[in-house]
Amino acid sequence: MRLDSKYFDRIRTRRKREQEPEQAPPTCQWDGCDKKGAHRAPVGRNAEGQFFLFCFEHVKEYNKGYNYFSGLSDGEIARYQKEAITGHRPTWTVGVNKSAKDSPIQSDIRSGAYTRVRDPFGFVKENKSSGPRFPEQRKLKSLEAKAFDTMNLAANATSAEIKSRYKELVKKHHPDANGGDRGSEERFRAVIQAYQLLKQNGFC
Fold this sequence. Notes:
Blueprint (H helix, E strand, L loop, with lengths): L5 H5 L28 E4 L8 E4 L1 H9 L9 H11 L13 H5 L3 H6 L1 H4 L6 H6 L13 H9 L8 H15 L9 H18 L4
Antiparallel strand pairs: 1-2
Helix pairs in contact: 8-10, 9-10
Protein name: Curved DNA-binding protein CbpA
GO molecular function, one term: DNA binding
Pfam family, one: DnaJ
């Protein structure tokens, strides 16, 4: 490329900025000190983000006697520390919502399931109410029917009848009651297993 090319005329260069004069560092804010104040120290409570400027010797002296909680009582300090756990934001105790607190089924209302289900005949309320875990006409499973047969009970026997029959059979077939008869030992085990199965399934 030639030195008298037209492209050289289009080149523009930036002018060098004049360097701004450097500002002198601030002097120490300690009374009677003329040294450079290059070290920051916090002003104190209710003045966050504000700082004093001290020299190295005086910032050490200032920090030795600095107390953020100066002027506060022990109760006010404890309250400040408690509020600091939540970032000084207001909090509420669980269950202050009156509609959730007074509701009979709190978990359903909070999840929204209770409002979505239409129950004009009250079937849900009946299931939630206290009473026998299983209806009397429920079809028995094979193990449950076998347990009732083992205890010589009808399928619609009440909880009191099951417990009474269990006590009666245990007394009858216990090894201490029948003189250690081996023939009754298997029957004794079968009665205990049958009662435990009925108890686990909510019949007694």
